[in-house]
Write a structure and sequence with these properties.
With 86 residues, the protein is mainly alpha-helical. The protein has 3 helices and no strands.
């Protein structure tokens, strides 16, 4: 499939770790791009470095709010990695 070759070329040019292909977020991204259609414009350099990064940090900060409360109350908390996609 030609699109696989495009993905591979990007992977090699960006020198991405081969382990990244196993990330669920990669498959979620592909599904979102595919469902958007052919007119999706990529995010800009500024979007990736500033606005989208800020949104992701806010999202993670909101996820951590409950853990910070536990840390204040108990001095520690248990954390596991979980992805939640909107």
């Amino acid at each position: 499939i030609k699109v696989h070759q495009y993905i591979a070329k990007f992977w090699y040019q960006a020198e991405l770790s081969f382990h990244m292909i196993k990330l669920q977020s990669f498959y979620v991204m592909l599904a979102a791009v595919g469902s958007f259609g052919p007119h999706l414009r990529p995010p800009s350099y500024h979007d990736i470095r500033v606005s989208l990064l800020q949104k992701e940090l806010e999202y993670i900060d909101n996820l951590m709010m409950g853990q910070r409360e536990q840390l204040a109350s108990f001095g520690c908390f248990i954390m596991s990695y979980m992805l939640e996609w909107k």
